[in-house]
């Protein structure tokens, strides 16, 4: 993995922000229309608070956009999800979207290597009255998943798993979460269009971190397309989200 220093990272993120819209929609105005017409008026007040708090954080581009949060909430309710997992929490926008959509006895196993980001959003999650649904575990997700699949009782028990962490591990995550999600349950992989770079020519002038992870995202997309254990649906929401329904 390419190691870059903090100043380089911040320069890259500033460059990324100049792209202006987080969505892959070709017009900012159209994206704004979706937000203002259908998303903001229905966004839970705690989600709004968390979104605004996160906007002040230097890594705010990592956050799930509100239209995608709305999609997650809708999906969770449609499948009557109760037992869920999230890999990659950051300040918790998708986590809070999930927690608000689950019934009061719903559960989210939330994995992230960084507790500090999670703790930034935690007071808002607590205020929303849904913190009791969350079991946050700090650490790299892969060994935590390995630990989970060691125990037979965990297999096939999750209704929904949202994967939004290090893209170079997505295939490793897939090979584990596929055992943990129940047949008929759903895994959602985030950022599967990777800023549109999945179709960029190999010599396109991409930001370093986009370039580095692009091949892993392409590899995941190709693997999911031929994986007979799941049905898939890739949506151009946010940075691209691929829904996988486990069928065997
Ligand atoms: N879902 C979040 C939201 O709605 O704001 C955004 C997640 S952000 C894109 C990716 C997160 O993955 C970061 O918080 C980072 O600390 C975490 N992460 C990166 N590598 C990880 C790993 N190996 N294991 C667990 N978490 C990891
Ligand atoms: Ca994401």
UniProtKB/TrEMBL annotation:
It holds the Pfam family Methyltransf_3. One of its GO terms (biological process) is methylation. GO terms for molecular function: metal ion binding; O-methyltransferase activity; S-adenosylmethionine-dependent methyltransferase activity. Gene3D superfamilies: Vaccinia Virus protein VP39 (3.40.50.150). InterPro entries: Cation-dep_OMT (IPR050362), SAM-dependent_MTases_sf (IPR029063), SAM_O-MeTrfase (IPR002935). Keywords: Metal-binding, Methyltransferase, S-adenosyl-L-methionine, Transferase. SUPFAM superfamilies: S-adenosyl-L-methionine-dependent methyltransferases (SSF53335). Belongs to the class I-like SAM-binding methyltransferase superfamily. Cation-dependent O-methyltransferase family. Methylates caffeoyl-CoA to feruloyl-CoA and 5-hydroxyferuloyl-CoA to sinapoyl-CoA. Plays a role in the synthesis of feruloylated polysaccharides. Involved in the reinforcement of the plant cell wall. Also involved in the responding to wounding or pathogen challenge by the increased formation of cell wall-bound ferulic acid polymers. This is Caffeoyl-CoA O-methyltransferase. It comes from Phaseolus vulgaris.
């Amino acid at each position: 993995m390419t190691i870059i220093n903090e100043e380089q990272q911040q320069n890259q993120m500033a460059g990324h922000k100049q792209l202006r819209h987080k969505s892959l929609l070709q017009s900012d105005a159209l994206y704004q229309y979706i937000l203002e017409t259908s998303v903001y008026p229905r966004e839970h007040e705690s989600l709004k608070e968390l979104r605004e708090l996160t906007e002040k954080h230097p890594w705010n581009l990592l956050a799930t956009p509100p239209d995608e949060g709305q999609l997650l909430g809708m999906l969770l309710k449609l499948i009557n999800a109760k037992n869920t997992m999230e890999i990659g929490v950051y300040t918790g926008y998708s986590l809070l979207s999930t927690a608000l959509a689950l019934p009061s006895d719903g559960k989210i196993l939330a994995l992230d290597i960084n507790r500090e980001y999670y703790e930034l959003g935690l007071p808002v999650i607590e205020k929303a009255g849904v913190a009791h649904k969350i079991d946050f575990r700090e650490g790299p997700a892969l060994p935590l998943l390995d630990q989970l699949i060691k125990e037979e009782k965990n297999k096939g028990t999750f209704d929904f798993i949202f994967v939004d962490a290090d893209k170079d591990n997505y295939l490793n995550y897939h090979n584990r979460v596929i055992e943990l999600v129940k047949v008929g349950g759903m895994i959602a992989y985030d950022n599967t269009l990777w800023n549109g770079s999945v179709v960029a020519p190999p010599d396109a002038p991409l930001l370093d971190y986009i370039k580095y992870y692009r091949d892993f995202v392409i590899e995941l997309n190709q693997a999911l397309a031929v994986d007979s254990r799941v049905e898939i649906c890739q949506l151009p929401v946010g940075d691209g989200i691929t829904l996988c329904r486990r069928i065997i």
